[in-house]
Design goal:
alpha+beta, eight-stranded mixed sheet, five-stranded mixed sheet, 15 strands
């Protein structure tokens, strides 16, 4: 019964992500404008974020009316089934606004508080990543069929390629830049894609050795976290803690712990408005 339920949730997430991705890719207006802002004037929401979330929630609730929702653009219902959908209809909104290709639709299904299925669709890459708890991580793309995902073997720390992201609040961004400046001499290099969901899937695909960011919400990482873990990566927050707004860290085994320790030492977990330590 549980296996069948998880398969149903995955298939529904795949359908919803595919439909939302097509809407965002094919329906983007030439005069796309900011609909509103959130944490700061540069933390934006477009009309397409709102339309994509409505498409996803309408589709899912039409099939499973008793499920709950947590969505970035305001969907928030408790539900009575024990299933909650955690949705980022457009992860990488600023990229999307500027016409950059790195953005994604992220949909995760939780059962009694644990993520059991997740889908991240990256339409401009032509790739979709998915996982069910305990069944591994997979992707579809320009190749035939589904491809099993596996994170990279761990390199020495000074040969590690790591991605990160930056907050939209000025004080937090300034501190994050300081942390990145301390990390860069210790690593191969740092990347910044603009989409947490894509970064977590790139760890799963072996395109990155590690990823970290402060200030994420559950909808940013729920699906990507499951996909990364099912591909063999380790994920967490501060040492001994789960992913949270304070810190999200993912990495191939052998990279995760030293990266996490450095981030703890450098105070990557605080908001930059007071000294770390």
């Amino acid at each position: 019964m549980t296996e069948a339920l998880h398969t149903e949730l995955l298939e529904l997430a795949q359908e919803a992500a595919r439909s939302a991705g097509e809407l965002l890719r094919d329906g983007r207006p030439a005069d796309l404008a900011v609909a509103r802002t959130k944490s700061s004037p540069i933390d934006v929401v477009t009309e397409m974020d709102i339309a994509a979330e409505k498409l996803i929630t309408d589709l899912i609730s039409g099939r499973r009316p008793d499920d709950g929702f947590l969505g970035e653009e305001g969907a928030a219902t408790e539900g009575t089934s024990g299933i909650r959908w955690v949705i980022d209809p457009l992860d990488g909104t600023v990229n999307y606004l500027y016409g950059l290709p790195t953005w994604a639709v992220s949909i995760a299904a939780e059962q009694d508080g644990e993520t059991v299925a997740g889908v991240v669709a990256a339409p401009m890459r032509g790739e979709t990543y998915h996982a069910v708890r305990g069944r591994g991580a997979w992707a579809t793309g320009a190749w035939d069929g589904e491809r099993a995902l596996s994170c990279r073997p761990a390199p020495p720390l000074d040969q590690t390629l790591v991605s990160t992201g930056f907050n939209y609040v000025a004080e937090v961004r300034a501190h994050q830049a300081e942390v990145a400046g301390r990390l860069i001499p210790l690593l191969r290099d740092i990347r910044r894609s603009g989409s947490a969901a894509v970064d977590l899937c790139d760890v799963a695909c072996g395109r990155l050795d590690g990823y970290y960011e402060r200030g994420l919400n559950a909808w940013d990482f729920a699906a990507g976290d499951l996909i990364a873990r099912e591909a063999g990566a380790l994920t967490g927050g501060r040492p001994g803690e789960r992913l949270s707004r304070e810190l999200t860290v993912a990495g191939t085994p052998g990279v995760f712990e030293p990266l996490q320790r450095l981030l703890e030492d450098f105070g990557a977990w605080h908001d930059g408005t007071f000294p770390a330590g």
